[in-house]
């Protein structure tokens, strides 16, 4: 929608809120509504009921109080070392993760649908991985094209016929959701290999409870602090047979990895060792950790290292991050990895288009959470459609993440579109495209007022003895006005996510 046509909030509700905000000097002058679903405003005439108390509270805060709270939050993040790494930027790689103090609120009814949909999805994707690495029924019956699976760079032939503990291939998942114009949550992406960001979810909550304790209590927000203990319980449940008190470690690429803060945070919260590849060794297909008192057996590895780098004997021979012989120990059943080798095939962006069919095939159910319409450039007719409409599409490389390898058509130049057209023609299997979606916007504190910014939601799903989902997730924010890119590596930030108990 042209900005000139973008409606402002109705004068009556704006004046009512503005009266409350008289002492805070905050304004709604730049809060313009468009066709996107607004998390706070139910059209131009009213607030969504669950945001009324929030606006009342923030509107009553003097500006000096708000400034002090913002400074306290920033200092807390700084003291905790809550950072992320941006690669390829000349101005420096280490940054404090941007944080917006206005929480994103989700009602109990909305969350119930999200929770059921995520449980359904992880169950079906686990069955899919078990099937393609064993019987291959879904391939034989033509539900998912065999060539699409076998051409995926994340398909690991070494995993064919290998049994994994409890048949759980994906124990930890971060699923990216967006909300459409009608308010419906849909799945934008599945992150099954090494999903990150959960530490920001947890630290956002800790800071929010500290700086707005009364508001937090008034809302009856469901807790998320149990996540690390749920994760620990999930990892324990996947231990090899005969190891009732398993030794669990978190395997990190090291301090230069973009998510190293998270690796250290989670290991500390779970009370397990944080290790790098050089800390582990294998003997007779058993993994051991080097300690000052000698070698200690390792039973479960929560790995934050990609397949390609995890075992130089099987995958990339030049990797300095992995453990030689780890795959053989895994194949022998002497150590469990979460997530399993080869799970990346199920979060390939081209395979994403088949998840609704995967759910129907294994569960005989309709998807509770729908997909975004997706065009596979590997299909000639769909490729022609994409190339003819690049200015309207979002194009993604199937193996990229973090906002990299992506073209946002409406915000691109002719030169960029020509470059992507050449890439698509050269390697169509490597690209998919989706319509540009103006997903939901939530209020953010910007300078002296409230402004809407686009947000997504990444809930975290655990799968061990059962499926566990903490009520909330990481709400990521496109802090740049008009931007649709929420990734921290591309200038995005985050919010606390409040799921209401009733």
UniProtKB/TrEMBL annotation:
Q: Which Gene3D superfamilies match?
A: 3.30.1490.270, 3.40.50.11290
Q: Which Pfam families does the annotation name?
A: CP_ATPgrasp_2
Chain ranges of the Circularly permuted ATP-grasp type domain: 103-478
> Which InterPro entries would you find in this protein's record?
ATP-dep_Glu-Cys_Ligase-2 (IPR051680), CP_ATPgrasp_2 (IPR025841), UCP005522 (IPR016450)
| PANTHER family from the UniProt entry | BLR5612 PROTEIN (PTHR34595), SLL1039 PROTEIN (PTHR34595:SF7)
Question: What name goes with this protein?
Answer: Circularly permuted ATP-grasp type 2 domain-containing protein
Source organism per entry reads: Terriglobus saanensis (strain ATCC BAA-1853 / DSM 23119 / SP1PR4)
